[in-house]
């Protein structure tokens, strides 16, 4: 709810509060959940920094807040505004030096590197070198690899040829470090969890290579599903069907494959609209629904497939009637009447904005069964 506030609205709500710590909580909540309301974002950041001065925050809390704020700097539009905010951020840095190289500190530094690199590469490269040097000093091997994963994530986003040397260096350290950790421990899922989530969003192929050396099939599939979910967190235009195929083809267990189809359809069903070619790229996953053995997943996928098809006029005109028939038939196959009633009313609600007549048919048939 807070994430849907405009920047003007959140500032109005903050002004109603008297306690600086409470103001900071609301501002940080908005910053973490902001739904692309970037107008007046600079003002929100400046107000947050001002409240940070007034509050009784510890060094750790100051760092956490700076981390949240610095993540927003790439959304600031003008060069001058970015320069002003970076200068303000640096005023707080003496307060966080005693924290040590925690995750919040190196992610904060990476946020600052990322925005400064888009402004003046020559100065920012030195910051990157300093970050990598600091990470090499981390004694805990897992924390060190997770830190390198964050660096790899930022370098992947920037995609600059001039950073290739650092990209390859960090890639090699992650790969060798993970292999060493997995050879020394049996708890592979715990070791790889954060690494797969961070890197999987930008490079699923690399994380799938890591999954290959995890020790059990269930743990490997758990990792692959984590990769899929974090990859699906990207915007629709950044999700490639070839990557989705690559991930799903490596799944070993039947239930994992069925969950993957459901998660993919769920992501695309939540888009406001979909281009014709995007829907076409998802059709192979829709065709897999008929082979799903889990009845609950099959029914949910049938509903999601109908919603995906209706996101594009071309495919809606060609396939919506067929998908409606599949959804209706799959629903009628539900054995328990009470389950059928609950699901029927839910489907009626879900499709009411897409096809009111179809929704009414579900509602009336469900009421009749009830």
Shape: globular
Instruction: Count all strands and give the number.
Output: 0
- The computed structural class is mainly alpha
Low-confidence regions? none
Helix content: over 70%
Major β-sheet, in short?
Answer: none
Per DSSP, what share of the residues sits in E-state strands of 2 or more residues? under 5%
Please, how many helices? 19
- Could you state the order of secondary-structure elements as H and E? HHHHHHHHHHHHHHHHHHH
- Gyration radius (Cα, Å) is 24 Å
Distance between the termini: 35 Å
Mean pLDDT: 91
What do you see in this structure?
- The longest helix is centred in the middle third of the chain and has 21 residues, at 164-184.
- With 370 residues, the protein is an all-alpha fold.
- Helices cover 74% and strands 0% of the residues.
- The two termini are 35 Å apart.
- The mean pLDDT is 91.
- Helix 3 runs antiparallel to helix 4, helix 6 runs antiparallel to helix 7 and helix 14 runs parallel beside helix 16.
